[in-house]
Fold these 2 entries.
Entry 1:
Amino acid sequence: MSDPRVGQSGLPRMPSGLNAAHLSRRELLLTGSLLSAAFVSAPGLAMASDRGIEAVPARYVSLAPSAFSDAMAANRRYLLALDPERLLHNFYWSAGLKADKPRYGGWESASIAGHTLGHWLSACSLTVANTGDPEVAAVLDRTLAEMAKIQRAEGDGYLGGTTAERGGQEVPGKVIFEEVRRGQIEATWALNGGWVPLYTYHKVLAGVIDAHLLAGNDRALPIALGLAAYLAGVLEPLSDAQIQKVLSVEHGGILESYAELNAITGQARWLRLAERLRHQAVVEPLIARRDTLDGLHANTQIPKIIGLARLYETSGKTEYRDAARFFHQTVVDHHSYVIGGNSEREHFGPPDQFGDRLTTATCEACNTYNMLKLTRRLFTWRPEGALFDYYERAQLNHILAHQRPDTGQFAYFMPLQAGAKRDYSTAENSFWCCVGSGMESHAKHADSIYWRDSASLYVNLFIPSTLDLPGGIKLVMETRYPESAEVAIRVDRAPAHPTALAIRCPGWAEGATITLNGRHLPVKVVDGYWRIARDWRAGDRIAVTLPSSLRAVALKGATDTYAFMSGPLVLASDLGPAAAAFDGAPPALLSQAAPIDALKPGGGLHHYSATSVLGQDQTLRPFYAMYDRRAAVYFPTFTPATWAEGGQAYLAAEAQRADLARRTIDVFHIGEMQPERDHDLEATGGAPDTFYGRHNRSIPQGAEVSFTMARRPGAAILQVTYWGDNVDRELAIEVDGVEIAVERRPGPGRGDWVVVDYPAPPTTLAQSKVKLIGRKNTSVVYGLAFIEPPRRSTS
């Protein structure tokens, strides 16, 4: 069942235009002449010429009190609470200098150490760019001074905090880059055994570039050029095939940084290297407009496309622009959940198939951070309101949701499984990638509200703020949006010449109205904007009303399962405090006809009530603010007829699912980078791979793969998944040093997944060591889980 108010992408349909009462003839002529000049070509054409639009620099924007200013304030407190000398610990050590302070825990004590410093530099630079904050500017300057000192000690431009293991000892990660320089390249999830060293190097380089571009710090550019020159010296001598092998490991946005340096310096060297840093396995299908994202690690890919977009801007090659647009549209329309985030367990799945992908590991925050960066880039080529409809959706429903406004800490995933809770970082012992990108996300809430080109000033986001352009217009936006449907924009200082204001009319805002000084404006919505051109006067006031219509958004690939949106906000049912367990069935709703019939207004704007099929009352309110609550976002929805037909089967399936969830101790998605690191996997042979969209790991004859998995006291079943045609092979399985099975797979095979249960010996420990030993030919394992045996009935 589909809702006619929802487009194929899950985004609401755009209104066709609005008519209103009279405007003065002169004002109408000014508006009409501007529209004629600005829209010579037909709107919506994929190849429309670029328009040269830019965000108004954040230094001209100040935020008024709101959830956004609260988020920035909490973020600033966290930035200043971090000690840059601790973030630099490994950098000192690598250069042979004394590190006076210990390194932080979590990922900063792993081989990826250093990535947090790069994000911190960018976040501080964004903060300075917005407010000129002297305290943040001072600590940023001191940190750059220390980085320059470390770089001088290295002597060749290198500056890094990654580590590697050689001979059982932890050594500076620079050894990996020197091996690559010599053509020694081993690439799996890691590069020469190091956890994504090029990714981390990019974060540092990008942070220093931001300190130059955004904070205007004079120390930054020489450091950036030294970093760039060192890495270029490593990569330039390699063959194209060798570079592509290096790029098969996650490398962040290194392409973007080199394209940016070309734009800053005009040096052709950086552009030549940027051209060689396109990852062809990902880029070429996109140029051909093919979606091959299924099974790919999502946040590995998005920065590549941001870099490709920047490369288009510096090289002028339009195939890069078109590939970036195709990727963005594909991810938004076919790989994103209702909150605007994407990925499950960090990976893209099959397009438009989310029915079995509602878990506790949906929507990695880094992905949305990067998708918003890409959205901004695309908007500079052509101003389409639909781009900021997506931006607003993701910013409100995911980015605001993933930061606790009290502590400033961050959630890695935004779990959309019914009853799930958000798990937040700690101040000194997490430092996941999403902590780093989170610092940036919440330093930039002022940077996308207002945009401009030679003809127009755009209002893209309805965040209470003041825009003060020196010698130009001064606007004050007053609103409690999205908690209110009303937005007021007041001209406090008029510009010297007639100026067009382009105000976004969200695609979901059916019945939206706009007035000037109390009079309705007869302007149509074109490309998502009301455009008003006139001689502005101080005191002019624009009022926008955006009715928050209720909409149902179908979960693609699932039958009659819906999320609900009120205006720009995703709604969720409150299933109790995060501290209390929830193992019940997702609340299923009963509607008479259309899905939205299940909800009734209650308790104010964006608040609704519903009754589940079992008669339980449900209260739905904005999802983003449920920081310490368990929630349900997607709801199976029945009519009386479909419930009578399938209700009992649904309840039985949910009872079985809930029982299995209670008995599941640990699930290991073998073949995926992060789960393999979390489970301390070590392998003497074989490699990760994907097959039919599922990750796996091969175990050749004579190879051993060992890892740890969580246990509970008592007996357990080790459940292993194979592909049915993977026959004529033997695999020995040990748990805590005891061989529990030898899996022999004679032919004939079957083209389906095979799940085998192996009883494991009881334990009193919190984890077990599992070892897989190849005995004959090559076995392939697609997943493992420890589960408790079924409880025996007492009846």
Entry 2:
Amino acid sequence: MKIVYSWLKDFVDIDVPVEDVADALTSAGIEVDSVTKVSVPKGVKVARVLSVSAHPNADKLSVCEVDDGSGESVQIVCGAPNVKAGMISALATVGTKLGDFKIKKAKIRAMESFGMLCSEQELGLSEEQSGIMSLPQEYDIGAEVSNYIPEDCIIEIEITPDRGDCLSIQGVAREVSAKFNVPLKNTAIRPNEADDEPIDRAISVEILAPQRNPRYMGRLVRNVQLGPSPDWMQRRLSLSGLRPINNVVDITNYMLIQYGQPMHAFDYDEINDKKIRVKESSTQSTFTTLDGVERKLLETDLLICDGKESVALAGIMGGAGSEIKESTKNVFLECAYFEPIGIRKTSKRLGLSTDSSYRFERGVDPSQGLVDALDTAAALMSDLAQGTVLKGVIDNYPTPMSESKITLRKSKVNKILGIDIDIDQIIKYLTSLSILCTKQDEETVECTTPLFRHDLSQEIDLVEEVGRQYGYDNIEAIECVPISLVKDTSVEEHNRDSIRYALSNFGFNELTTNSMTSEAKRKLVTPEVNPIALLNPLNPDMAELRTTMAPSLIETVGYNLNRKNNDNKFFEIGKIFENSSDISNHTERDILAIIIEGNFFSPFWNSEAKPCDFYMLKGVLETLSYNCNFGELTFSVLELPEPLYGTHSASISGNLIQGTAGRISRKVCTFFGIKSPLYYAQLDITEWINSMQPLAQYTPLPKYPSLERDFSFVMADEISSSIVAEEIKTQSPLVEKVEPFDVYRGDKLGDGFKSVTFSVSFRSGEKTLSDKDVESLCEKIIAVMKKKHGVVLRS
């Protein structure tokens, strides 16, 4: 933000070099980007254009006769489109230096020119370069322009998002007042009101969304006369980076810079039914803003409406047709406080950032600052536009906002800042920042923070304020600081670490990949999932938030294979996202993704390589489950295989987790240019990762031996062996372990049948089992399998 130094002096009586002010602001934690001195060079004269004629050799140039006060007219060749006879402008005479450029007598297309009519940009007064500078008619011809436009300075500062109060001259003046210990002046003026008609008879305001718009104020000014604003106002606006338009619009912009309070001026005669309603859109619709762009709205977007239609996008931009026109006679001034989060969401989604939204997003003053801005604007419209201010003010404030109360301890201040400061000095520092302080004792002070300081909500914030006023550069540096290396690990981080330790012990490497992906990759593997699209992606490969982690891991494997790094085993703990029609219901899930490729175990001199396959991946998951307490995993065939997988795919469920696993399809591998088989698993661990896992319990080795029995069951191909294994386990507490270890298919069994052999271990914790103890149990298992699943013992 650009701070005009002379404007700043309206609020604080200081007579120090601008560099000292810049240093003080920097010491207070406000970054000063640059300090620029602005002055009109000597030799630039007030001149009157006597006549303008077309240049004989150039279509876009004019030949002007100019009175520079010397008694004789001079000829100037000018290319400005706004030059006309009778206007007063700034003439850089021959010999004048504008920066590094010296004005000389010149011939331009065979026509002599004895100087240059200057724009504001050429004089360094603003960025305006559309035409030559227009000066007031009362300026003396031949006088130095610098006599009327004194030297000034611009302090350009960078504001952090939490310091919205410093996005104004008044806000920065508060900081200067505190640092230089000078009082802050109240520059607000109150309008002279007419007695004939109160404002509440002329217009009404209704707030239908009080949470989004806690306060709405307004004033009505009749019979305004539109015209240029005075030279001093135009100059200050130009130096602040705003282009002067007319006296009404310029006044609202002046309040924007002076008080940090965005305002909107409505043509009162265009307001239907003389009603203003503040409400949410409620239905998805479109709205055309002042810039002529039709914008699609959501139900949560906040609108300013009249009795029939929407007239402004609240806190961001007015609607097409709501601007002040040359025919405007009566002006309704809006001055309001809008809830920052809602303005920020709408502004970012629409890609529409304005001076107004920039301030509302960071929080404006909902109390006295709002009142001062509205009253001062109405008073200026009365003085500068000859308007009549109606009696009274609209002030719709259904639930007044309350100030925060914070208890501050002296010991806390000294501990955090590393200084020794007494409680009275702390109070002095805070009071200078408009924080109301009540001393409780020599240790504590009760602080009431002003409503314009939205960043002050807890004790540590006040410690920072004391540090800023004390001066960071006054805090002595120390050579060593005791830091505790002991830190409690959160449940989530502990659970993440348990996964990391387990998989790293299996030979896996952890990845951290980007959570953004392309539309093509997302459609390839999860075409049915509605993604969250980025409003302004850096490139097409980062257009959406990922809906699965598979493409990220597959790309990493492909990157390694292209560099002859084979036998890859990777995992990543990250997030996936899914869109919802209601922005508050967007889903964000914690995911564990595992991918393997090539040989799981490399060949050795006394053993062969063991290549990756589905069952190797299944074994990794089961071992991981044992280490991380996922519970006993259940694998079942995917009823509707996902586009990601080809053969050998399964759904997985366990203790607070669920997911899928399988071999990546050839189509997906071809898309990523990979020829090797890939096996991938993705587990949703959102609930598990935030749950406290029980500590490992010691279990003594069994005292008694086990008995093993093998069962070869003939069953239909569609029956999963896991179903049979789970059924066997439920038959008795003596069943310790069930494992399938052989599958047979052949003509003797017939088409559609298979024989699966299970090894079943029986063990008792109380005695050694005999053959007789398990004989009846084996008969029960065979009978139950036949009755419930049609599974028979192979003869």
